[in-house]
Amino acid sequence: MSHRETPAAAEPLVAVENLWIRFPGRRGPVAAVAGVSFSMGREKLAIVGESGSGKSLTARTIMGLLPEAAEVTADRLSLQGDDLRGLREKDFARLRGKRMAMILQDPKQSLNPIMTAGQQIVESCRLHLGDSRRSARERALELLHKVRIDNPQRVFGLYPHEVSGGMGQRIMIAMMLAAEPDLLVADEPTSALDVSVRAEVLDLIESLVVERGMGLILISHDLDLVSAYSDRVVVMYSGRVMETLPASELAKASHPYTRGLIGCRPPLDHRVETLPVLKRDPAWLS
Amino acid sequence: MKHASSVPVTTPANALDVKNLCVTYGSARVVNDVSFSVAHGECLGLIGESGSGKSTILKALTGTAPAAGMMEILGMPASARARDKRHTRSVQMVFQDPYAALHPRHSVERILEEPLAIQGIGDREAKIRASLASVGLPLGFRFRYPHQLSGGQRQRVAIARALILEPEVLLLDEPTSALDVSVQAEVLNLLAKLHRERGLTMLFVGHDLGVIAHMCARVIVLNKGELVETLMRDQIYSGQATQPYTQQLLRATNLEQRSANRNMA
User: Which residue in A106, A109, A216, B197 is a FRET match for A115, CA 20 to 30 A apart?
Assistant: First the structure.
């Protein structure tokens, strides 16, 4: 395995080719993801699509977090050149944390309700880095500081129910960064948060990812919002990739679905009589 | 049973009048001395962050939160209304999460029929057809179950259920925040159309200034259980607010939209 030492430029951080995810249905298997391909380096990649487009399933495949009933096939599915196909749960468990980590939508549900914020970060440091009790505590405080929490000492001792949604998501981010993974997957990281803190949390994720040279997969239904925090955008609809394009060229997007996702939220500086609505075309799926 | 009987002899100036409303749970006062009114046919926005007490105000209006103060709906004290089904009919509510608001084992038809049955209203078949048509759902959807519908379709069913009793006042508790932004636009268009065509009085609760400004000409801002400011739509669009809290809210939303537009220019 000496070629693992070659620079990351040789192997993409994540490579997915012709990914299919099927679930058993009453009339044979149903494909929730149908032939998705993309690859990424240490960049910020947004996967955008509506509910049911398969964006979360795609990311969860990389994390090894699919439901048991899911049947996965792919021509290629790799993390830094390591094949992820056919890995067992305990193999994935070894990769999660150290090499890839995931932030979920609702911090209230992802944090352990009976452990303090500090204990959870400490656990993460001890598990992945083998820190001693004392150094794990120091590292946890430092991480809380890094996620822009003003008073880490105080927050360290708070339980999840005692913190706001935005604060909870910062704690999640601190935990996920503890083992310095190469890839961070953020699945709708701000959907459960108030509008007033969404931009702050995305800013934080972006700057930490850039600072550490990590790869980021940012999943959302809100194209307007996430495109501002990504380099490239993969637009998914009904289990397929409609279009992949640089975030800076979204204004030039050619696919009608992408165009429909742009500007569907009510503007903040003028009133429009009728909001633009997507017209879905069955031909997109052929 | 005449529906118009819920309107008192003298027609009050406002559809909704709230004065000095306080809601207290144990030692926590979640709504503190809030007063506002909604004119007939107006769509008033009520905005605030999580925990500001905005949903609690709706609960107080529907008699499901311990309220002190004066609340009049269509000229009648809310406390008296809650016990009388003839009056509950004129005020209906649409909830935030359409996944939680519909009975998972009832078909759409049964969901829509239930309020009619409770109110003892006849001609149900025609009413169900009309209500599905009014929210833009095909008639065949009446035989579906909630799990066979998308989020936007479910919210349409929830709106149809609220409208089937032909209410005068509609209480909307973040009706689009559980939906994708692309579907949000569809539901907002529908609500705006219903407001325009039926002259419904609406109280629209939300946390997204863009959504609220789209729907409401007048918006009240709630912070930590207190009413801090009243804004007109144009003040939101031009970014004017006098209270620090509202300014902060405007800035945060602006920041979000600006960052969203960063790549769009």
Answer: A216
